[in-house]
Fold:
Amino acid sequence: MGLPAIIKCNSMVIAPAGHARRGADRTDAQREAACKNLLYQKGAREGAEAAVAEALGEELKAKTARNGYMSKATKSKIKTLVDTLVFLSQLREASQQKMNKRLGYKQQRCYLTLITLTLPAAQHLNEMGEFDDEHVKRKLLKPFLQKLGYTFDVDLHIWVSEPQENGNIHFHILIDKYIDNTKKDGNEAESQQLTKAWNSILANHGYIQEYATAQRARHAAGFAYDASQQRRVEHFDAATGRYVTRMEAVNYADQVEAYAYGEATGWQNPNTVDIHKLKAQNNIKAYICKYLTKNDGQDGRRKLGGNLWGTTDQLRQVQAYREEFGDELRDALIRLDAHKPGALKTMLVTPAGNFTAQEFEDNDLGGQVPVLATIYTYSQALFWKFAPWAFRRRFENYYREAFRRIYSPHLVAKPPGFDDEKRSQPARVAVLA
Structure:
């Protein structure tokens, strides 16, 4: 059978009637998993890297336009950075303690924590009557991120912006330090230090004053119960092994407590910061990414202006671990597939498009269309059960060196002629994430 006419259109492959179409049975989750489990074959042809980049949705800067929503390529990049932070936090060095004299307690060198920042009043508009997202990021978020560094000793962070149901912008920030943000009875000076840091910035731009005015008006005649008040609550679903979020009514007792605290503090310290310790969470990466990669416009919320996310330069410079795909890794994947048939999925990257192995066979492309690279998709947790010990050691040593360069740069010896940029970018032959 001759080569069927295949038309390439926006990374989609459309085959003639009667032939398998690429992606018909591949979900977004499977495709995103493939982005994290790319293995370049030995001797890949010239142009393979560009073809693979396109297959994974890694858009070129010139082609990437800000449309106010998060693209698949952006989600993939953020998830890669999350992977790196998770790997760093799992090293034994990460549990080392360091005294934070400003806070008065010790912190682990790398302990993943997720912060959510909200506005206590309606977001300010610009002269065009539109939400001024750029102003919030420049005048509120930026100084808060700086304070995370010099007061709370945060070395690495990833932040993303997202619109709430009411249109207000809010931020999720993954940081590498745990910060005690609890209320301390009888010790207001040490209570909610993170919340106070954010609220002090909000106060400089009128948000706390607007919040206080609204609350005083609402409770002008004393405590006023609001039956419509809701909050987000997370529950662990044992059936799926995931955390689910739902809205629940704020009960009478909790509203009374919030009213009493508001009166006692002159309505100057609203609950604008939510903090999650991630050490005990099941499937940390999935939990984090649920928050960091939501703003894709599918829920009907508004577009955001400017950058949707950002990270520290130190984290951005840590490339995903890569090495040549040889017999050692191939054997591990074969054993994985034998242990759990169907767990190992394959996608072939070709000049004509990207195909599953079955689609490649159905379209009778063997021997006619060169395979530039093979993408294997599999469970990361399952892979580690079969990964060779030598590979584990190389993998850990790579991230251990990155850890030292970030947290203990004075201990990293630099030999003559050391080139930071070249050293941080090993051969782009295989990706494991």
